[in-house]
Amino acid sequence: MSTFTTFEADNQKIPLATAELVRARICLAGMRLWRGQLEDPRWERPALLLILAMNATLYCWNLSINGWANYFYSAGVQSGTMDPKALFFGSSDWGNSITVDKPPLSLWIMGLSVRLLGLNSVGILLPQALMGVVTTFLIYAILHRTVSSIARLLGAVIFFTTPIITLMSRYNNPDPLMLLLMVGALWFTVRAIETGRGRMLVATGALLGLAFMTKQLQGLLSLPALGISFLLFSGQRWPKRILTAACAGVVLVVSGGLWMTMVDLTPANHRPYVGGSVNNSVLDLTFGYNGIDRIATGGEITNAMQVPDQYRTSPSDAGLFRLLNANYNQESSWLLFAAMLAILLLGAAWKNLPNAPALRFLVVASCTWLLTAFLLLSFMGNQIHTYYTAALGPPLALVLGLTVEVVVCQRHRIGIRLSGTVIALAALVSTWLIISGTTLWPEWLSTAALLIGILALSALAVNAPSPKIHVGAAMLLAVALLSGPALTSMHNVTVGFTGSNPLSGGLSRNPAGISHLLQALRNNEMPWGHDIAFGRAPDIELVETVANAKGCTWAAATYASQTSARLQLASNRPVMPLGGFAGSDPSPSLDEFKRKVADGQICYYVEQQAFLEVQGPDSIAVAISDWVHSNFQSQLLGSTTVFRLVKDS
Known about the structure:
Oligomer: single chain
Mean pLDDT: 92
Strand content: under 5%
């Protein structure tokens, strides 16, 4: 007879020794989770867990307040749950008339969440929030390989409290996935430098390819930084180094271009129109609508997308200080110009950095990435959106984390100490300017943050009788520097954001600022702009009629995409977005629309008079409207004019 005592688990008898071993392993794993690596200070892992818990709370708290967030992408997620073809192509509707204006990778991930949690706000937005938290951890993990505890923890805090990062991590635009993939690519490149293994850089290529598939060219913003830095600091011999980089490039092209190639090789009559393109091609979407047109303001902007003169004080705000103006500064500019000065400090301290390839690689890669993003956003054309500044978040946090490490380790050098003081003062002045320029906070707050920061810097500049005084002063300085972005991030979770251009913070004191334009649009002061940016809320009578429409591929057709998406989400029936996102795509043409109506594929045409009023006479939208008016009878559902396009059976 066995000498082991047994106990019941899942109807099986398990030896007690085995059970004790399992319990011991669980306890050991818990201790490792709490303790962290043995070489780390005992307080570091609990501090990291607290930071991640605060991060998760900030991003997940009150998540449903954003409703459908960007209706355009929520409708794309909904379509993917209804039809596998719509899922693959990223269609706006499951009648598969047109795609959204980005590749569908982020829609696929939100779609998986919706299958588990249902089609609702939390189901769509929760994966976005979790991706934001994972990115925060990766920022810490990257810095953990090269800098000390305070610097890496501070880098993580800087990242997750950046207001636009908080906002987009609670929104359904593709940005959270793009940033996660880009930061993941950096982690693998650091590992490639440390280990000399080429497969690590190949993984970098795969992740950057997926970042490209998430948001196209914007997902490759870090590519120059990673590529140049790898070639400079890899320990491989040059022939192998170049071969490794080439292999990574091939993997990037394959992972990023496979879906694009499959779509463009599919006959046009067997797939939806590629939204945002002028010739029904993902290639044109990539280098036109999502490429050169954004950077150089190429392409014609329709009347419906023109900003009123009262909000355009100059033809363009492009320039070195664009990101500090009232349109963008509450997003990620609080510490941005301090970080630009920090790049100079890192360059000055280069000779005194430890001769560690991973550290030197990270300094060059982070600085190059930040400079690339900063210059592009500062000088690109007028089609820039405020949330593009999320691309600054990761390199900004990394550069400032590295800078803190240099200042702490080389504080005996008077030049470094003075440089650190100038950088901190630049951040304090930026905070003062940004808080002073918004109506969100009391007027005394900006001055209080500035004075507290200066007081802390003064305490750090003198020889203190106790090191605890310097520690307290450093903590006080951190509070002053992070007060602006942290408070704005907390504000972002207390208000709901919807539509195509979410904006952090409160109203600017500058009446020409974009915050006033968006408020005017939200208040329906410019109905055509409201419909494009936020979509027209459908009348109850319209929703009920469309929901009960039977026998058609599309229950209704209307424009633009935000309006059609709201109707589709409310009725749970496919709605054709005429002309795509802004109503300007050549899909469908008048002849195609006539043919679909003749075939009984569209039940209702929903007119949007405010949109039509700002279209040119040669607009497809106007041509379709004129044809419908000439051939069908209108009816009023609530306050909406509707035309029934199919005969009663």
